[in-house]
Amino acid sequence: VQLVESGGGLAQAGDSLSLSCTSTHTIASWGMGWFRQAPGKEREFVAAISWNGRSKAYADSVKGRFTIDRDNGWNRASLQMNDLKPEDTAVYFCAADPVAPIQIDEQTLRPRYWGQGTQVTVPS
């Protein structure tokens, strides 16, 4: 299984970016999520989505600004990031959990597969 992220880059504060994660394996029954790691910090949870898209969870720091979504037909998950802030600067990782429950959140998403990461930079 490979998860390939795309869509990162340089953005100004207040701008929007969209990240995409494409899987080489069907994700139709998998929970999907996004994490990020800023320089010198530990990897942190950003967002999660259940296999059917009906359950979503967000870190407090991104709630109201970021939206996670998925397209099972294309084996793809996405993260729409609006109103970006300098503190959003990090490497963003896609994650997949083949046995995630329908009620998904930071605790129930237990990634088995990770993408290689994509850099998002928002200068201060």
Features:
124 residues, mainly beta, 7-stranded mixed β-sheet, 4-stranded antiparallel β-sheet, 11 strands, globular
Walkthrough of the structure:
The chain is mostly beta strands and 124 residues long. It has strands spanning 3-6, 9-10, 17-23, 31-37, 44-49, 56-58, 66-71, 76-81, 90-97, 113-114, 118-121.
Secondary structure: number of strands: 11
- SSE sequence, one letter per element: EEEEEEEEEEE
- The portion of residues assigned to helices is under 10%
Q: State the distance separating the first and last CA atoms.
A: 36 Å
List segments where confidence is low: pLDDT < 50 over at least 5 consecutive residues: none
* Overall SS class: mainly beta
Task: Count up the helices.
Answer: 0
Most strands sheet: 7 strands, mixed
Shape: globular
Gyration radius, in Å: 13 Å
Nearest-integer average pLDDT: 97
- Binned strand content: 35-45%
